[in-house]
Amino acid sequence: MIDRQHLAILREVSRRGSVTAAAEKLNVTQSALSHTIAKFEERHGIKIWMKTGRGLRLTQAGEYLLTVAERVLPQMEHAQRVLTDFALGRRGALRVGMECHPCQRWLSRIATPYLTQWPDVDFDVRTAFRFDGVEALLGYEIDLLITPDPMETPELLFTPVFDYELVLMVHEAHPLAGRKRVQPQDLLDEELITVPVTLERLDIYTRFLVPANCRPRQHRTAETIDLMLQLVCAGRGVTVLPDWLLHEDASGLPICALRLGDSGIHKSINLGVRRGEETTSYIDGFLKLAREMGR
Known about the structure:
It contains ten helices and twelve strands.
């Protein structure tokens, strides 16, 4: 039979690159780990991995089992946490995943009253997933996803919280600052600063530049919104951010906001949960608080 131990071994060997490191993580001896896998291979008539020099290479069967491990183990770990919560008399654990870099301050405003209202709930925020946010939610890595890009699926339920518009932010002395709106061609000579995600997840590219077959002169990323705004203030480039940040983070800074195109790029922040879990008391409490506070 395939049990949790086999999947856990495979996952740790893949993550850490060696049997020795995996054994240390799992608190077993290297020989015990190797023996467990050898018996598994013998029972099923397969090989899980092959030695290549000092490293290991997963076989086709090993790659398949690793995919199973990455899907099944988070669900089992989630179930274990829930049972532990029941045993300890706690109300639960809420792991919030974020696909919206500018929403960190918004989440901070929600988190403070939420933690007060739900003192027995273990609250955690994650911004890095092994898969994308939707896959992390489906795979039980997180329990709630904050995203501007909801995906319609029978297993998930997304609730819109507030609407916003993406705007181009430039220094008030920038040549474009006197305009009310810009077109894709206006960014050809600009250095565009964005959050560190793939171009496929940047609306400025997918909904503005790419359809017009335009690219900025240079594209760079910044890890934080504060750094992005500081670079704009220093005349080091332009950036695209939600309009509500202009009133919060950029208030008092020498920055102007310009509409992107004639109609603008309009978005919504959505909260996604696994369908059926929206009535769980502490998840429903977070959703209600988020809707009440808006942005």
